[in-house]
Automatic annotation (TrEMBL):
InterPro entries: UstYa-like (IPR021765). This is Tat pathway signal sequence. GO terms for biological process: mycotoxin biosynthetic process. It holds the Pfam family UstYa. Keywords: Membrane, Transmembrane, Transmembrane helix. Belongs to the ustYa family. The chain crosses the membrane at residues 42-63.
Length: 300
């Protein structure tokens, strides 16, 4: 019993300290004499408790971390697209259309190019026109909140405050790629420089970033290998590969079937009054002022 009070604390009083020091991997000296057995028992119980609490805390932190990286895997109403739901931010589309993953053999060799990668012409333009339809449609105010936006700031249909306008991300990315493509054939698409909007270059640079971000965000890990090519001195990349792709045709079919015609709908929408607004970029203000100056100069 002499050791029991060696530091002025009883065994019971020491328990919290024991627990505390164990957290740092330090074991306090065990009391000797009659209390030794009692202390072993308590130590054991405390170690078990401690481990349990550690595991519970760890699991909780791990779960929260997982959830905060994927704040969006729950809240779905169907069990469609389970894998995409785990690897995408929340999207109501994943409850509305099945997007299976498909293994494809892709041949992107230099001279095996699709209609999209031909010099401009009627057929090519029609293919891109279909590909880049914006796919505008509606989501609910609750969905707007779920994707991390504020429904008091998003535009809704004039006759329905629960129908908020949206465009699938992929169609904006394709729209941007098409803008870059058209600029490659500037004489064909913009034969007269006056056809270029004052935002032309800013729009293209914005689009460059959109496509870059899309590629880096998806960061495909499928592989390109190299071959020796007859009569060529250095190894050449082989652009045929196997990839797992989202079923584009199914998704595109759904988007086309549910599309709101922008010309017939949003082009005629007007404010009803009281809408919250976002700021105009200062560059637009400057362009507007410049245009007004030019108009006035022409009137004089
Ligand atoms: C890919 O397409 C090119 C051009 O059509 C063809 O010559 C080549 O054999 C194809 N390669 C494979 C692996 O399919
Ligand atoms: C060439 O490319 C097209 C479109 O990407 C593809 O459908 C076709 O299978 C390819 N041809 C060959 C020979 O691989």
């Amino acid at each position: 019993m002499a050791n029991l009070k060696q530091d002025g604390y009883s065994a019971e009083e020491r328990l919290p300290m024991l627990e505390k020091d164990e957290e740092q991997g330090v074991q306090l000296p065990i009391d000797g004499g009659a209390s030794r057995k009692l202390n072993y028992k308590w130590t054991f119980i405390l170690v078990v408790l401690n481990c349990t609490m550690f595991l519970v805390t760890f699991a909780d932190v791990a779960f929260r971390t997982f959830r905060s990286n994927n704040p969006s895997t729950d809240g779905y109403a169907t069990d469609l697209n389970p894998l995409l739901k785990q690897t995408s931010y929340y999207s109501p589309l994943l409850d509305r259309v099945s997007v299976p993953l498909k293994t494809k053999s892709i041949n992107d060799t230099l001279y095996n190019r699709s209609v999209y990668a031909q010099p401009p012409g009627l057929q090519v333009d029609e293919a891109w026109k279909q590909l880049t339809r914006l796919g505008l449609t509606y989501i609910t105010a609750a969905d707007v909140t779920h994707i991390g936006k504020d429904p008091s700031l998003t535009v809704h249909a004039p006759d329905n405050p629960d129908a908020h306008l949206m465009m699938p991300l992929v169609t904006h990315q394709l729209h941007c790629l098409n803008g870059i493509r058209k600029n490659l054939f500037r004489e064909y698409y913009y034969p007269d420089a006056s056809m270029l909007s004052p935002l032309h270059e800013d729009h293209l640079l914005h689009c460059l970033d959109v496509v870059r971000e899309a590629l880096q965000c998806a960061a495909p890990t499928e592989l390109i290998t190299y071959n020796w090519m007859r009569d060529v001195d250095i190894p050449q990349p082989d652009f045929t590969y196997n990839a797992v792709c989202r079923d584009w045709d199914g998704l595109k079919g759904w988007m086309d079937a549910n599309e709101v015609d922008p010309m017939r709908t949003i082009a005629v929408w007007r404010r009803e009054g009281g809408e919250r607004e976002v700021d105009e970029p200062w560059q637009w203000t400057r362009i507007r002022e410049e245009q007004e100056r030019q108009r006035e100069a022409m009137m004089e």
